Amino acid sequence: MREKFLEYITTNELLESNHKILLTVSGGIDSTVMTHLFHQTDYHFGIAHCNFKLRGAESDEDEKFVHNLAMKFKKRFHIKKFNTNEYSLKNNISIQMAARDLRYSWFNELATEFSYDRIAIAHNCDDIVETLLINLARGTGIKGLTGIKPLQDLIIRPVLFASRKEIKEYASLENIKYREDSSNDDIKYQRNLVRHKIIPLFEKLNPSFSNTIIQETEILNSTYKVYNQELKRIGDAITIQKAPNPILSIPKILSLRMTSQVLYDLLDEYGFTFSDVQNIYNTLEGEP
Amino acid sequence: MREKFLEYITTNELLESNHKILLTVSGGIDSTVMTHLFHQTDYHFGIAHCNFKLRGAESDEDEKFVHNLAMKFKKRFHIKKFNTNEYSLKNNISIQMAARDLRYSWFNELATEFSYDRIAIAHNCDDIVETLLINLARGTGIKGLTGIKPLQDLIIRPVLFASRKEIKEYASLENIKYREDSSNDDIKYQRNLVRHKIIPLFEKLNPSFSNTIIQETEILNSTYKVYNQELKRIGDAITIQKAPNPILSIPKILSLRMTSQVLYDLLDEYGFTFSDVQNIYNTLEGEP
After folding, report:
1. What three-state secondary structure class fits A241?
2. pLDDT tens profile A100-114
3. Taking the CB of residue A232, how many other CB atoms lie within 10 A of it?
4. Is the pTM of this model over 0.95?
5. pLDDT for the residue A286
6. Which of A77, A258, B29, B108 has its CA 20 to 30 A from that of B245?
7. Nearest-5° angle of CA B58, CA B64, CA B66?
């Protein structure tokens, strides 16, 4: 496991030897094992833990657990308590989206303030398969089918090579203690349904279903990149004047006979919703 | 149902009023209902039935059923018996692929010989969702996720708008008799698993899962078209001399840093397998 971890970091060029890394640690098995793996390397790292206060005393015990881990390894410990419910109500978004927003913006603040070069998140390769199936059910277009990337801006995912099973076996072998997540929110319910019910059925169709899907995300990712090259070309062709005061050519848009989806992807940076774009397009088509 | 059927044909420009259509009829519910729907229109049509001789006496009774249907409606009846097992062994392909090959090449022959303008196949909209999930499990890249098209060369699928449930209700309402398919081959087993086990679980994640997937195939189809535009551009850029004696530029291929998948899609017309292309690419990269 240790060797595969270092090899994965090298192969994917996730880190340079002098990099300082912020490990984001919930206290669950994946992030705790990731912390133990980093502890055995020469990398400098600190630990960040978010307390979303969604599960009362349990949330506080998670926090204490991660704090103790940081003290044991003599690492800087960053903690922040969030009022997730309030933020979710105020911004009219789901609890999950609220937790996500709060978490990522805080991590980025920490990286700036404490000069962290990378932010490490403990996704494993089963997460790739589960996320693809959840995104498929939500209908997210190709982007949601391109997998979880090992490196994306400051974010690295250095245990993405390992399956949940391998991580469990390693934790047990090394006698690594971690916190069991007792939450049963929507996300957890969806993941469990996919993990324990849907994937085993797909494995009846294809015994190496998970590997097939991981390869499939890589293929779709290369398709997505080529798609974006062409999208950029179309974007240039319809643009009369660039941002900050963009002017687009309506006759050009109509002459290219693109679908609403393609126009939506083109206008992505301007923050329109898909139905905005459909309305715009229908209006354009109605014009003489 | 009748109105929706005609509307679907018009909206998707599947037929012109003077078109002669070859209906491909197995005798199952979908194709039998399709035949009854066409019988109520002014379109000229003939009926083709393939006897794959895979289920003994039952295959012969299916043939008789479709023959009777054609006689009742006073339509030309085309029948062909295939030795599917032999063809499958001889060409080293699965029974399903063999049946598919034999079927389509015969339909095209009939179209030429008897001047049919279109070949009608009775896929319904549940087939779209099931096919996407089966292709996903097989890992077919984006092409396998772009859905079943209402119109493709000579092929039309005029009942693609209807769900299996709607077709059943219509058959029962109109007292339409059809043959139950008792086969239990691989395809049937896969379809039943997807239909009765996997889709109901996805519906727990998203109650309108099937509609979401149908929209998703349309979105992915528009992505696929844009991808192919760019692919064509890349193909032109690496081509020194065109077919029939194509010469491709190796330095160009390497400089574009494309993935094996993109190269594979580019070389599609030359009939390489994916592992051929990976080998070619690895060899190219090893060259000075």
Report:
1. strand
2. 889 999 999 999 999
3. 12
4. no
5. 64
6. B108
7. 105
Tokens found for residue B106: 């015969």
Reading the block at residue B211, the tokens are: 């509609």
Question: How far is residue A82's CA from residue A206's CA, in Å, rounded to a whole number?
Answer: 43
Radius of gyration of chain B (CA): 22
State the smallest CA–CA distance between residue B153 and chain A in angstroms: 21
Q: Residue B51's beta-bridge partner residues?
A: B81
User: Which residues partner with B21 through β-bridges?
Assistant: B45, B118
* pLDDT score at B95: 81
Tally of CB atoms within 10 A around B32: 23
Question: What mean pLDDT value characterizes chain A?
Answer: 89
Taking CB atoms and an 8 Å limit, are B137 and A227 in contact across chains?
no
Decide: A1 and A162 in contact? Cβ < 8 Å.
yes
Of the candidates B138, B197, B234, which has its C-beta nearest A201's C-beta? Answer: B197
Are A55 and A16 in contact by the 8 Å Cβ rule? The answer is no
Helices (H), chain A: 2-11, 29-39, 56-72, 84-90, 95-114, 125-138, 164-173, 186-193, 199-205, 209-238, 250-255, 260-266, 274-286
- Give the gap in angstroms from C-alpha A141 to the nearest C-alpha of chain B: 6
At A177, the amino acid letter reads: K
Q: Which range (B4-8, B60-64, B232-236) has the least confidence?
A: B232-236
Query: At CB < 8 Å, which residues of chain A contact B?
Result: 134, 136-139, 141-142, 145, 190, 193-194, 197-198, 201-202, 204-206, 209, 212-213, 215-216, 218-220, 222-224, 226-227, 229-231, 233-234, 258-259, 261-262
- Is the Cβ–Cβ distance between B123 and B158 less than 8 Å? no
Among residues A76, A72, A74, A73, the alpha carbon closest in space to that of A49 is found at A76
Across the interface, whether the CB atoms of A136 and B139 are under 8 A apart is answered no
Determine the length of chain B. Answer: 288
Average pLDDT over residues A37-54: 93
Cβ neighbours around A30 below 10 Å, total: 22
Look up residue A210 and give its two tokens: 């998970």
> Measured at the alpha carbon of residue B286, what is the angle toward residues B280 and B288, in degrees to the nearest 5?
120
Type of residue at B22: L
Q: Would you list the DSSP string of B200-226?
A: HHHHHH-TTHHHHHHHHHHHHHHHHHH
User: Interface pTM (ipTM) of the complex?
Assistant: 0.82
Nearest residue to B136 (alpha-carbon basis) of A220, A213, A95: A213
Q: How far apart are CA A129 and CA A137, in angstroms?
A: 13
Cross-chain Cβ contact B205/A194 below 8 Å: yes
Please name the residues in contact with B112: beta carbons below 8 A apart, sequence gap of 6 or more. Answer: none
Helices (H), chain B: 2-11, 29-39, 57-72, 84-91, 95-113, 125-138, 164-173, 186-193, 199-205, 209-238, 250-255, 260-266, 274-286
Chain A residues within an 8 Å CB radius of B274: none
Residue A208 · residue A215 · CB < 8 Å = no
